[in-house]
């Protein structure tokens, strides 16, 4: 999968090693990490000049891409590249492919907690360090570097390939939706869309030693609901029973004690079936019979907590609390934000209905701050998924490709209105520690891992 045709000899040229590829391209990613492209819902907090500088650096770092691909700005700082394929010349009406990434990042809470400054773009003997290395500038740089290398070899894709790079994914912004609408307005329905999401994850599932190449075929809905109560308030020295804060606390505890019902959706069943082949004998016998053991395995997933539990149900996390502004003042209004990840098969409406049922207190109001439904589920039996499996196996021969439902959200959901084959996979090896560093301290991407990602995109573009 990694070899390409040498235009000078007409024969297959061996691909360089992942380590060498990563080392050669590491300074480019490091440079991109120096730009403080932190997104915020408050416009005044966005350093627009940093986004401008990031965009201005791309032609310098990837000159062949800048010269050969059309670039269109979307929604201000979104980028939509078009790599014209050979199908137009031959009359082969192949639908295009879209490769996605985003270059905005989340804030850094405490720069002093980082081993290397978060926006220095430090390269060590093994890693490229900085905010955004994994989420998601690493994927953006890997896409562009893969295209840069293919262009240097005289390669032309068989179909048009679009690169859609967003600038406000971390705030669930509207750039990806604008890009999808732009393509829709031109009558373009992509054959394949691939965004960030899953990865080549080690230690992701109990009993399985082999790394799992988890490909998101859908993603949960994301819903923020404000729970609020009101009361007369007064002095804290004379509190009444069930004041605003106490009533709110009771509602929260009821939600904590009665989680949403658990179930193993079909995607998760298929995931377990596929990964069972990599498990030891006894777990393999259990996991391989997941359809017959669906009910007890659902309970086991729930008991494991964390990611396994979240794969089985709609989850509710109370992320913000507000009450009185004074330590000796009773709150006249208390509120909490519930961040909810809506399981595939559920809806925003059904979620709100259950919240009201569990809280069972009409004095607790529910207000939807924002939210979206779970995405449609893309197939695992089509040519698009087969191509992803083949490319994964060629790049990561030790990994087991499996479908899964993403627990977080991506820009990819914006493209499900114009494409039936939308997948979420970042071609990087990630340990549990790597995954934990996303949105946290000491985010970094291994140099060899970065090289593998570049080789993955080379192979994928070559096969499209």
TrEMBL record:
Signal sequence, start to end: none
GO process annotations (BP): proteolysis
Database matches in Pfam families: M20_dimer (PF07687), Peptidase_M20 (PF01546)
Name this protein carries in UniProt: M20/M25/M40 family metallo-hydrolase
Natural source organism: Arthrobacter zhangbolii
Gene3D superfamilies per UniProt: 1.10.150.900, 3.30.70.360, Zn peptidases
Keywords: Hydrolase, Metal-binding, Protease, Zinc
MF annotations from Gene Ontology: metal ion binding; peptidase activity
Region feature Disordered, mapped onto this chain: 1-21
Highest rank taxon of the organism: Bacteria
């Amino acid at each position: 999968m990694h070899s390409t045709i040498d235009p000078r000899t007409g024969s297959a040229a061996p691909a360089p090693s992942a380590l060498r590829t990563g080392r050669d391209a590491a300074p480019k990613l490091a440079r991109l990490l120096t730009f403080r492209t932190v997104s915020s819902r408050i416009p005044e907090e966005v350093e627009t000049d940093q986004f401008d500088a990031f965009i201005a650096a791309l032609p310098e770092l990837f000159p062949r891409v800048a010269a050969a691909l059309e670039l269109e700005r979307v929604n201000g700082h979104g980028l939509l590249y078009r790599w014209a394929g050979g199908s137009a010349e031959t009359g082969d009406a192949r639908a295009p492919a879209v490769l996605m990434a985003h270059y905005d990042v989340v804030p850094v809470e405490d720069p002093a907690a980082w081993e290397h400054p978060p926006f220095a773009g430090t390269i060590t003997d093994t890693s490229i360090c900085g905010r955004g290395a994994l989420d998601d500038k690493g994927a953006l740089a890997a896409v562009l570097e893969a295209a840069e290398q293919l262009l240097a070899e005289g390669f032309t894709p068989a179909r048009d390939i679009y690169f859609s790079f967003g600038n406000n994914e971390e705030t669930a912004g509207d750039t990806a939706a604008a890009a999808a609408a732009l393509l829709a307005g031109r009558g373009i329905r992509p054959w394949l869309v691939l965004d960030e999401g899953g990865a080549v994850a080690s230690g992701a599932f109990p009993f399985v030693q082999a790394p799992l190449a988890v490909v998101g075929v859908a993603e949960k809905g994301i819903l923020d609901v404000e729970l609020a109560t009101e009361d007369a308030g007064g002095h804290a020295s004379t509190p009444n029973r069930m004041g605003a804060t106490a009533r709110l606390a009771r509602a929260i505890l009821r939600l904590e004690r009665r989680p949403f019902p658990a179930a193993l959706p079909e995607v998760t069943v298929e995931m377990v079936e596929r990964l069972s082949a990599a498990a030891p004998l006894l777990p393999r016998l259990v996991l391989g019979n997941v359809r017959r053991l669906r009910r007890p395995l659902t309970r086991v997933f729930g008991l494991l907590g964390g990611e396994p539990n979240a794969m089985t149900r709609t989850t509710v996390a109370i992320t913000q609390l507000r009450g009185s502004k004074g330590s000796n003042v009773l709150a006249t209004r208390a509120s909490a934000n519930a961040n909810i990840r809506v399981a595939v098969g559920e809806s925003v409406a059904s979620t709100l209905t259950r919240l009201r049922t569990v809280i069972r207190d009409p004095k607790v109001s529910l207000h939807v701050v924002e939210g979206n439904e779970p995405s449609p589920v893309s197939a695992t039996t089509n040519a698009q998924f087969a191509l992803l499996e083949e490319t994964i196996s060629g790049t990561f021969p030790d990994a087991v490709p499996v479908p899964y439902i993403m627990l977080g959200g991506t820009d990819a959901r914006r493209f499900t209105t114009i494409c039936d084959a939308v997948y979420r996979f970042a071609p990087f090896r990630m340990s549990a520690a790597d995954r934990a560093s996303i949105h946290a301290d000491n985010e970094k991407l291994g140099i060899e891992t970065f090289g593998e990602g570049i080789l993955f995109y080379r192979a994928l573009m070559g096969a499209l």
